[in-house]
Amino acid sequence: MKTKVISLDNKDVGEIELSDAVFGLAARTDLLHRMVNWQLAKRQSGNHKTKGISEISGTTKKPFAQKGGGRARQGSMRSPQFRGGATIFGPVVRSHAFDMPKKVRKLALKVALSAKAASGKLIVLDQATAAAPKTKDLATRLKALGWNSVLVIDGAKVDDNFALASRNIPHVDVLPEIGANVYDILRRDTLVLTKDAVAALEARLK
Question: How far apart are CA 120 and CA 101, in angstroms?
Fold first, then answer.
């Protein structure tokens, strides 16, 4: 499919052919759901923890005699029924990550790109560069373009001035091509790819 290429000044600077193998796939919400779950599970720290009975500070002495007291038998004050005692079957430090086949991850990224293209929210930019790392200047340009929630994906390396200028603008993310992922694509309303990003993504995903 053909789409126009614009500059940051919102001027047409030509056209580009987008590969249907990468940008023309049918929508698969089930696949996108699986991929987002996989990404969010991987980033969970999993450092929640409660103490088992072997980790509780306290005496190992039997609190009172087994018989004759008229109370239920007890072997330790560190038991879970007592205040300050152990937690039974509580969470432990662990990884929440699970496996996802590489082919499925690749397909999910292509479906996410295709979904943005199909909804008209995919824009191809000539180049994402800034003359100086000035947030105000870039914010003015993005506002003129109507990009309130946008993910900009550049080629192998992001322009330093552009990255610095965009860093303090709310709802604006900038990534190199290698960092393109389903979650970040879906969480922003508009997806902006530079010509370098299009070439690199097609080379990687075809």
Answer: 29
Buried b (16+ CB within 10 A) or exposed e, 26-44: eebeebbebbbebbeeeee
Distance CA 54, CA 21 (A): 57
CA dihedral of residues 20, 21, 24, 26 (deg, nearest 10) = 150
- Tell me what percent of the residues of the chain surpass a pLDDT of 90: 96
Domain at 2-45+97-205, CATH from 3.40.1370.10, 3.30.70.20, 3.40.190.10, 3.40.50.620: 3.40.1370.10
Over residues 169-182, mean pLDDT: 96
Q: Which two tokens stand for residue 123?
A: 């824009």
Confidence of residue 60 (pLDDT cuts 50, 70, 90): confident
Amino acid at 100: M
CATH 3.40.1370.10 in the chain is located at 2-45+97-205
* Residues with Cβ within 8 Å of residue 18, at least 6 apart in sequence: 1, 2, 3, 24, 117, 124, 198, 202
Please say if the pLDDT value at position 166 is more than 90: yes
pLDDT, average across residues 88-97 = 95
Please check the confidence at residue 206 and state whether its pLDDT lies above 90: no
**In whole angstroms, what is the distance from residue 197 CA to residue 154 CA?**
5
Beta strands in the chain (DSSP E): 2-6, 12-17, 122-125, 150-153, 172-175, 190-194
pTM of the model: 0.85
